[in-house]
Amino acid sequence: MLLSIALGVGLAAAVGLRVFLPLLVLSVAGYSGRIELAESFAWLATLPALVMLAVAALIEILAYYVPGLDNLLDALATPAAVLAGTVAAAAVMTELPPIVKWTTAVIAGGGAAGLTQGITSLLRAKSTVTTGGLGNPVIATGELGGSLLLSVLAFAAPVFALGIVLVLVLLAVKLLRRLLLRR
Asked: Residues 6 or more apart from 61 whose CB is under 8 A from it?
């Protein structure tokens, strides 16, 4: 039960970096039979879902390298990340009663995705201001690598991935505190 929560939160945090890539990893794991998804999320383990998520992930990855579009995507990705993080978390929490599953998915999954997305949006905005957007591809590459690494790590070592998410939360609190104290 705890491993499924750790897996769900790890995937949700990865969704905050890239919305579709962790869902693609989840779809591949479900399609290949490496993980059993909750019954209402079995559609994620189908070939059409896998193809759709692969196309969406590719478009999203490429779009973050287009100046200006990357900042627009951040505004759109924030609510999408919270929703997708909730879905990713709920899809893998197969052993929990529905009320516990959905409460955990919304709070921990959606919260982790929203927090991660918020941090990266702040970093990209700061990069846009300080470098005129020239530093944004570096951030996009870091997000891509982080999303893929955290997604795979969530399956390979869920508790370790959860530990990384907790460290990210602590760093986010520290960053926000620093930003608020400057103002």
From this structure: 18, 21, 144
